[in-house]
Amino acid sequence: MRIETEQVPLVLTALAIALAPHAFTLPPWILVFCFTCWGYVYYLDRNKLKWPGKLFRAIAMSAGIIGIFITYGAALDSEAFLGLLVLLAGLKSLELESFRHRMVALFLAYFLVLARVLNTESMAAALYMAASVACTTAVMIHLNRKNTRLSSDMMLAAKILLQAFPVAIVLFFLFPRFQGNIWGISRSAVGISGFSDHISPGDIISLARSPAVAFRVQFADPVPNSSNLYWRGLVLWRFDGKSWHQGAGIPVESFPASDQNLIRYALTLEPHENRWLFALDVPVSAPNAAYISADRTLYLKRIAYKRQMFDLVSTPFHPAQRLRPWEQQALQLPDSGNPRSISLARTWAKQSFTENQIIEKALEFFEKEDFVYTLSPPGLSGDPLDDFLFNTKAGFCEHYASAFAFLMRAAGIPARIVVGYLGGQKNPFGDYLIVRQSDAHAWTEVWTTEQGWRRIDPTAAVAPERIEQETGAGILADRTLRRTIRYPGFIAGFLEPVSLAWDAAANQWNLRVIGYTQQRQFSLLEKIGLPKTRAHTVLILLLAIGIILLLAAAIIRYKGVSTRRRVDPVQQSYEKFCDKLARCGLPRSPDQGPSDYAHHVGSIRKDLKESVDRIIHLYIRLQYGPEYQIESIRIFHKTVRKFNPGSNTNIL
User: Which residues, listed in sequence order, are joined to residue 418 by a DSSP beta bridge?
Assistant: First the structure.
């Protein structure tokens, strides 16, 4: 069979489309290696030059594998597997001279598409994967069909995929779902949320410049006022003079919750590759996948490597309670440093009669002095808090929270820092809040004898617009988004509703598709009348039936390939020609070849001799010749179709 010259560029195009989403996650040398192989192959095919031999391919493969081991070592993680797969896609192109290897290369394109699942589960990636599968399928069909246009093959591929879509929907809902990572491949535990278990002045500023989504929230009840949208993350207790750290000996605790003043909501957390879970201040309980500590912070039982949804309950009030022994660390101060700050706080303590009066003096100090809220504060030297409070007087929320907590402790009031997020942007297309990294915030909590732990946000005394937001949309987030994208104001204003609409669609994808867990599958089966125990049985049976059907299909395919005669369009037309003659009383005996059969028919029917000889001659040339042209096939089919041995007229 002749292989058309356009096949190599089409196969390379399908591979490139499948590889494109991985381009930014691969080491540059792998991309250079792969595209060099593809460019070399394209050059050979275009100029009809000799293809590389086994020695050349062996050297290229050895060099690539050595590079893989140097880059990834012995770690068999998802990145190493992806790098090896892309390397194989480049090496396989060196064998595209034969039809069989072109088909194998297309199967590698399918694997490249599937490998995208290891890196992302976004709706955009799913749409791109579907388009890539359609392109690869169209190229595969084009390679296996003769005399067809690529556009018609693309339509056929789309039709096949659309026909398979209902089956995919049924399998999505009913096929057993697995818990955890089916491949057993772990990712590197590098935090991407920006938060860590400690903060120093300037840490949160890096988050404030990022428009990335931290989580989304949908409330079952009316959304709280924007000034109350404090999303609690970590509580920091210990101060070493420069940085704040998590406390020690904080127990895990359960809290009795009354039915009053409860706020219920669903929070979809983006993967941040850490264990903390953000919740509206103050959470009263933990979901099944997390636990709650005594300082009212939620921690995941497993690192958040993927997007997850949690049903949470919070209350706007801290319950009043006594200061417990482990909470005495809220009074800890370094042995030395920041003498002016300590002196100021102790002066307030001497001049005041109650804890609340000390707090008011501190807030008044921040409000009346010339403090500035800025994303670009000057550096601090020497005693950092003294330098901030009495010299620079410019900083971000963690500067003010850190200074306020230090002043409270110096005045004898227990204080701690809470880091998390503030506010959120309401999406009108989905009726939910988008909390971005740019909404990152730090505030303080102080303990008083009358009220227990109480939230105090000193940033509100300096920049009340950061706290009091009319729409719930982060002012800082909006400014940061415009500054990061660098679009003119009118273009950014046009793109914002488009961005929100896309986010609403992506959120539904995350909730309905990615969020369809094993528990939700059991809930669906229970709704249609199957209790959980029977649902387990049904899913196991479905899995077993699926495996049996796959094995049966493989066996039938194997036996069919080994025993079934390959159907050739030319042979089909020849058999139609023989059938026409058989109906006229001129059957072909099994021992007659094409030439003998033509001689036999011509000796009996002189009127058919010329047309029969013409058809047999075309058949022999097409079936046994070294090469044929598409036009010759058309002529053969047309001649057989017009051949009518029932009449005595020579059709030729």
Answer: 235, 443
